[in-house]
Design brief:
Layout: H1 9-30, H2 34-60, E1 66-73, E2 76-81, H3 84-110, H4 116-134, H5 139-157, H6 163-195, H7 212-225, H8 237-240, H9 246-255, H10 257-273, H11 284-304, H12 308-328, H13 332-363, H14 379-393, H15 400-413, H16 417-434, H17 436-443, H18 457-460, H19 463-481, H20 484-490
Antiparallel strand pairs: 1-2
């Protein structure tokens, strides 16, 4: 029994969306009192995670959970309901909000960042919109909160306030709003015209009288309208957003924005089109191979980047398309792999970004070429980086092994040997652009007098940041040995299975 068991199921949904907003309001009142502000941030994050645990418990016990906020027209509501895919994303996002908040406390203080109250406030608002996306009952609700997520994270991207940050923010806002208005909005309208419903429905909403041509167009519109999934050529917003502080990069790449994008594509594939029906849509293979091309091209670009955050950004573009590919393979096993990749990539990539931020705070180094011998000065950070890198690559005993395994099995099941080749080559490219970083740090001699002999990691890296790094790196290992609770939740998703 959880501590929220006395609440009605609908109240759990409402609170999961409202609690971060209340936290944001309290942060405004905390103002310039750092200790109080940070206590409120952590407390709010912990409360949210316990709420989501309560929702997960009800899901395993098959307790129906739904609530309607606003009835606009007959069949058009702002409403929320709980299903296993949304629960999984909510668990990842709410747990990593706790860890990212702890990391951000150390980073923001250690880097002497300005406007920290605004930072934590926008962080909370962004998580509120993520919870609403997780539990959206229909496309209208998803669309509204998808847009609010873009707007709530814009101040985080432009946090530094300089010209570079403003330019990155313009690219961020411009691409995401343009794709959603030009493509996603029309995809939602087209779905309403064709299916007469926007409700997420197991097996999909289209019937025999729905136009196959329109459905084919809608799939393209959804894939490109959800710009947060970063399919090429609408991916530039993601590297542009790297001007933001590292905790924001972690939020963008592991917790909120990009995961909201690929989660939305997966949810639409499962509940609007239906996994079993995707193979019959004329444009499925087109978008599948565009996703595969994004996997490879962004990996090649990543190998050329010397700036660490830029390399990780293009790595994220590649890894997101693993999830898109898994959704479009029209295989229950591949869809399971894509769902699991949301989790494993989240922990692996957030570890890498945490390490990048710790390196920048401690040494003011941003370029990989400058990190020679750094492992001797920052052993804990660089060991964690190696663990996160191995998980992204998909090597045992790291969590990423399982998601890539299911994706490969799904591609083989569908006789998509090109996709098998793409996933294999991409993993080799992961090795090429990630492993040289810890190798350079540990096995290349440091430059003479690079730092005083008394220099130690704990003196120069804030303790909260090191704690956060240790937690996410440990999770990369633990999720390899104990993936079963997540797999059990994945197997509850209609049309998705790890059985083969």
């Amino acid at each position: 029994m959880n501590i929220w068991s006395a609440l009605e199921p609908s109240q759990l949904i409402n609170l999961s969306i409202i609690v971060p907003v209340i936290g944001a309001a309290l942060l405004v009142f905390a103002g310039k009192r750092p200790n109080l502000r940070e206590t409120v941030s952590i407390a709010t994050a912990v409360i949210l995670f316990t709420l989501v645990l309560g929702i997960a418990d009800n899901t395993f016990n098959q307790v129906p959970m739904a609530t309607t906020w606003v009835v606009l027209l007959s069949g058009l509501n702002i409403a929320f309901s709980v299903e296993p895919l949304g629960v999984l994303f909510a668990l990842v996002a709410s747990f990593l909000w706790i860890i990212t908040t702890i990391y951000a406390i150390g980073y923001m203080r250690g880097h002497h960042e300005q406007n920290q109250t605004r930072f934590f406030c926008c962080f909370a608002l962004a998580i509120s919109t993520v919870m609403a996306i997780c539990f959206s009952a229909n496309l209208l609700t998803l669309f509204i909160f998808y847009e609010l997520l873009t707007l709530s994270t814009y101040p985080l991207v432009t946090h530094a306030g300089n010209e570079e940050a403003k330019r990155g923010g313009r690219v961020y806002l411009g691409i995401l709003l343009t794709t959603s208005i030009a493509f996603l909005l029309f995809a939602v309208l087209g779905t309403w015209v064709s299916a007469q419903t926007l409700e997420f429905t197991p097996g999909g909403v289209f019937n025999d009288v729905s136009s196959s041509g329109l459905i084919a167009v809608l799939l393209v519109l959804f894939c490109y309208g959800i710009g947060k999934a970063a399919l090429m050529p609408f991916h530039r917003w993601l590297p542009a957003a790297m001007v933001a502080p590292t905790p924001v990069s972690a939020l963008l790449h592991a917790v909120a924005v990009v995961k909201a994008g690929v989660f939305s594509i997966l949810k639409i594939a499962i509940y609007i089109f239906g996994i079993d029906n995707l193979s019959e849509i004329a444009t499925t293979d087109l978008m599948l191979y565009i996703g595969a091309a994004t996997v490879l091209l962004s990996s090649f670009v990543a190998t050329t980047k010397d700036n660490l955050k830029a390399r990780l950004a293009y790595s994220t573009v590649s890894q997101l398309s693993y999830i898109v590919v898994g959704a479009l393979l029209a295989s229950s096993i591949a869809a399971a792999g894509a769902t699991l990749h949301i989790v494993t990539h989240a922990f692996g990539k957030i570890t890498l970004f945490f390490c990048a931020g710790a390196i920048m705070v401690a040494t003011h180094k941003k370029n990989i070429s400058e990190m020679v011998g750094l492992g001797h000065k920052m052993p804990l950070t660089m060991i964690a980086f190696a663990i996160g890198a191995l998980s992204i690559i998909g090597l045992p005993p790291m969590a990423g092994t399982w998601s890539k395994w299911y994706l490969l099995v799904g591609a083989l099941e569908q006789d998509k040997l090109i996709i098998v080749a793409v996933l294999t080559l991409s993993s080799l490219l992961n090795v090429a652009y990630l492993l040289p970083i810890p190798i350079k740090a540990f096995f290349t001699p440091a430059e003479p007098n690079q730092q005083p002999e008394s220099w130690t990691e704990t003196q120069h890296t804030p303790l909260p940041s090191l704690i956060a790094i240790a937690v996410t790196a440990s999770a990369c290992l633990l999720l390899f040995f104990f993936p079963q609770p997540i797999i059990d939740l994945i197997n509850l998703i209609p049309g998705v299975s790890t059985e083969f």
